[in-house]
Amino acid sequence: GPQVLDTAAVKNGKFELNGTSKEEGFYRIRFENSKMGYVFINDGEKIDFNANALDSTLAGPTFNTSANNSLKSFLMEMDDTRKAYVATEATLQSVPAGVQGDSIRKSISSKLVTIDTSFRNFVVKTLDTVKNPVLAMFIMGYTQGTEPAKLEATVARLQKDFPKHLGLQGLITRYKEAMAPKPAGSETGTNQAVNNTMAPDFTMNDVA
């Protein structure tokens, strides 16, 4: 399981946790006997956190730092896209067979492609303007299927802008290796260089 860095008890709705790290990364606050958790980026020495344990929506919890606000916005956009895709796909499945149905299915299928393309473009645009190395690593995990040429300049900028972040530099190295031309007859490269790992935990004792 993930490494536990600190524990705390909630008193009067408040708690305080402490931890140190060599560089910025993903961390998670969770209750001791619950699967529910709150993932955040440690991009500040002091980070205020507000949440309601009864609100499990993405919009609910708030970490008051720039990187975490950007992460929240990205996750909410991603969730909206997922919902739109699922709803459109359900509509597609409900179309009856027949000549008229074929025409409708073609139109709906085109809408699915549009949703997918729009999200891919959103990912590339967001990655191109991201200002935090950890968030960049996270977003790179959603570039699968994107033409490498569209990411070349962005990846070069990230490598230049965050030279001391070992996690991002290592990810970029793996990405470039995956994208490098392969000898004839070998498996072609795909941008699946992201290695998802568990975020270290901060835990809180459950309260009645």
Could you name the key traits of this structure?
four-stranded mixed beta sheet, disordered C terminus, alpha/beta, 6 strands, 208 residues, 46% helix
Number of helical stretches of at least 4 residues:
5
Strand tally is 6
Strand order of the largest sheet: 1-6-2-3
Structural class determined from secondary elements: alpha/beta
Along the chain, the helix and strand elements come as EEEEEHHHHHE
Q: What can you tell me about this protein's structure?
A:
With 208 residues, this protein is α/β, with parallel strands linked by helices. It contains five helices and six strands. Strands 1-6-2-3 form a four-stranded mixed beta sheet. A two-stranded antiparallel ribbon has the order 4-5. β2 and β3 (37-41) form a beta hairpin. α1 (66-94) packs antiparallel against α2 (99-129) and α4 runs antiparallel to α5 (166-179). It is flat and about 65 Å long. The chain starts with a strand and ends with a strand. Residues 189-208 have low confidence and may be disordered.
Sum this structure up briefly.
It is built from 5 helices and 6 strands.
Topology:
Blueprint: E1 4-9, E2 26-31, E3 37-41, E4 49-50, E5 62-63, H1 66-94, H2 99-129, H3 133-140, H4 148-161, H5 166-179, E6 201-205
Parallel strand pairs: 1-6, 2-6
Antiparallel strand pairs: 2-3, 4-5
